[in-house]
Amino acid sequence: MALRVASRKTLAHARLGLGFLQSRSLQTLTLPDISYDYGALEPAISGEIMQLHHQKHHQTYVTNDNKALEQLQDAITKGDAPSVAKLQSALKFNGGGHINHSIFWKNLTPVSHGGGEPPHGSLGWAIDANFGSMEALIKKMNAEGAALQGSGWVWLGLDKEFKRLVIETTPNQDPLVTKGASLLPLLGIDVWEHAYYLQYKNVKPDYLNNIWKVVNWKYASELYEKECPTERD
């Protein structure tokens, strides 16, 4: 009886999730374009890394998530609760990989387009208020990213409930929201080896130091301003 009840709950939750995906037209994912050339972030990030990262790794997450979604829909139609439960990890991993990388491409921009220029206005003030300075923020994020065991991400996020900035890490391809429903990712740095190994070998701190030269603070500032608009007289 307990197993039967659990199976019904699993299928019910999956149906709700699939209905949400269908209503949002997200059942089929597509690889997003990058708004700059693969080599535009050099020398901070090589064009070879960017091309492989985008065309191979991100595309794989998209392909595998779409495959898992098709399998999920088929399992729900058949009432196959074990298969529904089994697919959850694939959907989390590949869906998370798509979400995180879609943010990552926007978090970067060539130096010629403002890459590395520190944020001004409300986000700049918030960074000073929460961390003391931009230098202190970078130092803390680099330390958190370098210390992360295995693969994952280091994030600068906005806690929308308390209107404060936070630094978090997530393992594998877990999105920032897994650390709290009120957390909005402003900046995510991929610390999987595929993001840097071809260029920096196993010296992850060098990658972390150099990526700040192409961070798109304008994009992060726009996200922050939408949630915490500057008060005007």
Describe this structure in words.
The protein is mainly alpha-helical and 233 residues long. It folds into two domains: 63 residues, Orthogonal Bundle (Helix Hairpins), CATH 1.10.287.990; 115 residues, 3-Layer(bab) Sandwich (minor pseudopilin epsh fold). Helix content is 55%, strand content 10%. It has eight helices and three strands. Strands 2-1-3 form a three-stranded antiparallel β-sheet. A hairpin with a 4-residue loop joins β1 and β2. The longest helix has 32 residues. The protein is globular. The N terminus is likely disordered.
The CATH topology assignment of the largest domain is: minor pseudopilin epsh fold
Strand neighbour order, sheet with most strands: 2-1-3
The structural domain count equals 2
Q: Give the termini separation.
A: 63 Å
CATH architecture of the largest domain: 3-Layer(bab) Sandwich
Q: Count the helices. How many? A: 8
Number of strands: 3
Shape descriptor reads globular
**What would CATH call the class of the largest domain?**
Alpha Beta
Approximately how much beta-strand content do the residues carry? 5-15%
The radius of gyration is 19 Å
Q: Which regions contain 5 or more consecutive residues with pLDDT less than 50? A: 1-26
Q: Helices and strands, in N-to-C order?
A: HHHHHEEEHHH
**Whole-number average pLDDT?**
90
Oligomer: single chain
Class by helix and strand content?
Answer: mainly alpha
> Helix amount, in percent?
40-55%
CATH superfamily membership of the largest domain, which one?
Answer: Iron/manganese superoxide dismutase, C-terminal domain
Sheet bearing the most strands, described? 3 strands, antiparallel
